[in-house]
Amino acid sequence: MLFALAILGVLGGLIAAYLFGRTPQTLPPAFAPASSSYETAIYANGIIESEQSSGSNIVIYPQVAGPVTQVLVHEGQEVTRGMPLVTLDDALPKANFELAQATLTTARDQYNKRLVSYGIDPKSISKDTLDTARDLASQAQAALKASAVALAQYVIRAPTDGVVLAINSTVGSYVSPQGAYDAYTQGFSPLIVMSGDQNHLAVRCYVDEILIARLPAPEHIQAQMLIHGTDIKVPLEFVRVQPYVSPKIELSNQRQEKVDLRVLAVVFRFEKKDLPRVYPGQLVDVFIGQK
């Protein structure tokens, strides 16, 4: 029996070694890994953003603080310059505006009465009293104008034609010139993020500082963008280099990073017409080659 058990143990060990020693068949990748079509190229991380002559996306902060009373647009909506986007509680500035209107009406009435009296009999009132009444009317007019400007700040309007990308608040939420508080990140975000015309989008890619010397001259730069999760390769048009090397915190926004890796921002553009599923804020791979 001992010999039989020993033989069974040896056979079991051999079978287990065979089963566990087999190399499983590798599954094919869901999509091809990022690869360059150029003979030599520089790799860089990129982020899609709206196309602007300078800067990146359009961020809108309110100039005053207060609760949101209306959100007049939705994300993805095309807007025109001056179109109202969000309104804030304007009870106090509206009351001040009405008070300024009443003050102006009173000041004008006083001035008109004194002007008529002075026209009938110049000796009825002094010239100094007439001038004072005129000055008070001018001051009331200026106060009304200031009240109108203050009241207008409680309506957030589109600064330019474009598309609403994100609305970071809702009716009843309190916002301030710092923006809207985000309960998830526990930080402040812009009240509204907009993009310009979306016929074209920009790609801001970050080139590692040790590769900056290998960048081709602007007139010889060519680039290609690969969209994550697809095999789509999009040719890019060079726009500009942001001539400032900064710490690489733009993509992760982790302010406590320990490694001081610095990058140079290079901006490209592409036409969105044939890419309906590409959005600002999306991360992409960028290969920069030489013509």
TrEMBL record:
Coiled coil feature spans: none
InterPro entries: BSH_CzcB-like (IPR058647)
Domain CzcB-like barrel-sandwich hybrid: 59-177
One annotated GO molecular function: efflux transmembrane transporter activity
Domain of life: Bacteria
PANTHER family: MULTIDRUG RESISTANCE PROTEIN MDTA (PTHR30469), SLR1207 PROTEIN (PTHR30469:SF33)
Name under which the protein is recorded: HlyD family secretion protein
